[in-house]
Amino acid sequence: MMIILYILLFIVCLSVLIMIHELGHLAMAKAFNVYCFEYSIGMGPALFRKKRKNGETYFALRAFPFGGFVSMYGEGDDEKNLPDGIEHIPEERALNKIKKWKRAIILLAGVTMNALLAIVLFFVAAALPQKMIYLNYFEVKENSVAYNAGIQLGDYLMYTEPADPDDKDDAVVKAQKEGYYVVSMDSVATYTDSSTRTVAALIETNQKVLNFKVHNFNKCLVFYEVEDNQIIYSKEVTAEQSTLDYVDIKMTFGRKGTYDREKDEFGQIDTLDVILHRQADGTFEESGLDMYLDVTKLNFGQMLKQTFVDFGESSIVIVKAVGGLFIGRGWKDVGGIISIYTQTTSILNNFGAATFIKVWGIISVNLAIMNLLPFPGLDGWQLLVLIIEATAHKEIPQKVKSIVSVIGISLLLTLMVAILVKDIIGLF
Predict the structure, then answer these.
(1) 138, 190, 310, 392: which one has the fewest Cβ atoms less than 10 Å from its Cβ?
(2) pLDDT at position 85
């Protein structure tokens, strides 16, 4: 049942982005008195198609909610193929007969609406309570293992730093790349036969900490054996190992109340031993630590600032990502409809409404930028053709434009199918 609800939510969210985009085209076309045959959400067979009494534009909902269009008089050869019931449309109402600057505004209206929608979504996301997990300090339960070891709220966990941050072979650099924070490289696992192994204590951020529902230290903690100062990820040390007695985690803290802001250093740094014994049920005993979860509410000024920070940062990231595709980088990270569905659903489950809305804002920015690419079938291509015609003072033959558009749309559909296949393979 939940899967059906998630799919419906995804379709609604995607349809809103498309609807807003096409609404921009429609609104500007109407403003310049261009005759619009149809405003459609979705592609394929029409499920619903109706126009108001004495109206001229049909509003349609089509079977496949992965696209949309506004059909305007003067886009192609429709002057010779008017819909049933329409005998004549004044030539001045054709898209290709209005001034070029007006046509440019109509073409840019879709991406503009997506950009505005993104700003609205970023603002709504900023207006909701903001959650942040702090990996560097904890909630400490009284009379727990960590409490008895001397850890206090406000103590700053000092992560193990790489010897050389630019050394790709450094164990800490590798761990950070794989999505781990290194708590300790010299913790010790002791077994019932008194043998010991040096282990790395890591906070697993790539799957667990990023989920606001799980910020229990034990559940985010993993141990791997260390050999020659390298973490051996194939040798995980778990509580289920029957001969394991306990793990002594050596945690280094900057002590509460001794931080010097001017020097940017702590006046007192202590290394504390947090010992987690293996219990009869095959789990480690609770440490008594929860990573600090901070929930804040931004004021109006902060919300406004965060809105445009999010818009600017997402735009830069997307432009860089798109640019990378043209030089052969980033194709492995490209995803289609299935990928977007799985990612957004996971984000809703793990991060809540604020981040979910923010992600749809990023998708709206992405839709705007992608539509600006000068590729046949996209708004950017039509804008490029318009610029060429305005510069050359000569219209490109409609037949040529139609052929190029058909080729471009065919390539786009082929790419979409290829990405869909990639998504399906990725599921397995």
Answers:
(1) 392
(2) 67
Calpha distance 17→115 (Å, rounded): 10
391: part of which helix (H) or strand (E)?
helix 379-392
The predicted pLDDT at position 278 comes to 95
The candidate with the shortest Cα–Cα distance to 21, out of 84, 108, 102, is 108
**Structural domain of residue 43, as residue ranges?**
2-128+299-427
In tens, the pLDDT along 210-252 reads: 667 778 899 889 999 999 989 999 999 999 998 999 999 999 9
Pair 266, 317 in one domain: no
Q: Are residues 226 and 168 part of one domain?
A: yes
pLDDT digits (tens, 9 = 90+) for 54-73: 888 999 999 888 788 999 99
Residues 405 and 382 in one domain: yes
Token code pair at residue 232 = 């051996």
- Tell me how many domains the chain contains: 2
Could you tell me if 226 and 250 lie in one domain? yes
Whole-number Å distance between alpha carbons of 37 and 34: 10
The per-residue pLDDT for range 101-133, each reduced to its tens digit, is 999 999 999 999 999 999 999 999 999 998 888
Rounded to a whole number of angstroms, the CA Rg of the chain reads 29
